[in-house]
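Team,

Forwarding the record for the chain on the shared tracking sheet. I've put the sequence and predicted structure together so nobody has to dig through attachments.
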Amino acid sequence: MDVDEAHLDAVIIGGGFYGAAIAIYLANRPGLRRIVLLEQEAGLLRRASYHNQARVHNGYHYPRSFTTAYRSRVNLPRFLRDWPYVVKQDFTKLYAIARRNSKVTAKQFERFCAEIGAQIRPAEPKLRDLFEPRLIEAVFLVEEYAFDATRLAAWAEAQLREAGVEVSLCSKATGVSRNPKGGLAVSVHRNGHTSVLKCRYAFNCTYSGINQLGGDFRGTQTTLKHEVTEMALVKVPSALENIGITVMDGPFFSIMPFPARELHTLSHVRYTPHFNWKDEAGINPYDELSTYARASRVERMVRDVGRYLPPILNARHVESLFEVKTVLLKNEADDGRPILFEKHVDLPGFYSVLGGKIDNIYDVLEKLETEPFDNSAG
């Protein structure tokens, strides 16, 4: 099929987890058969889907945003059911509450977990002994997991192939416009050549690049904030090998298994974000990342974390993953992570989608279920 001339049912812009999952979903809707997925990298799930903490949330992380917490709690068992082969469950996960500067106390945290129905129990003495008791009020054993992004990418490739979705790698969408003959026209740059894909529906799943498309697209109504972040990959000492730890709730840290590399991620609320800016026209987040010097702050992370968790002082830094993290500006105060799902009325059939966590995919799919897609042939 010559996609330059064909009239497609849908074009998905962005080959991360969200873009792939949406393409697969649409391909299984009646009448939506001719679907193309565009990805500017040389493979799927190479950017934000990989460069993150690889955490499958169960709600514990969001005591200041009940909706985000509850949705994670509801979505976790669904994720385990649908992607059991990408989830790492064979490790101990701990949440600890700091004595000072925490925005929740241990009792408040316990009450919050009861409200969302998340399992929690006091950690045994051997696990509590990992922490500095003068700085940690309580330590809890919880149920939370990690995912392997490389296995998730393999799933996406296989399912897209089975669903008949055409995947075009190294293909950068540059704009979305109204097609004078009806539908949409997506401009694509590939191998020095620009072409136009004509389609009934288009989905903008480009994460931090969500407002970088030109043409008739004027950007999202929701205001966004970008951060250049550093996720440190470390080899932890034996005492922490099969453990994930989050210290709550303020300027603290997380250590999580990173199954794709058999290492752990180390992130710190103060040092992981290197700098941030409000989304605005003319500033491409990925250009900001590509020109950034990427000086690691891992020594400062380890030094501060070591005050609360002394064994981390013996961790070995392997490398750091730098990426742009994009969030909804309105959720800065409560740390919530709702999805962005916008239908652009001035471009009928065009949608912008952005999720804050991997389990948010179910919120997106629920939105799609309510959309009255025209199933007639294009």
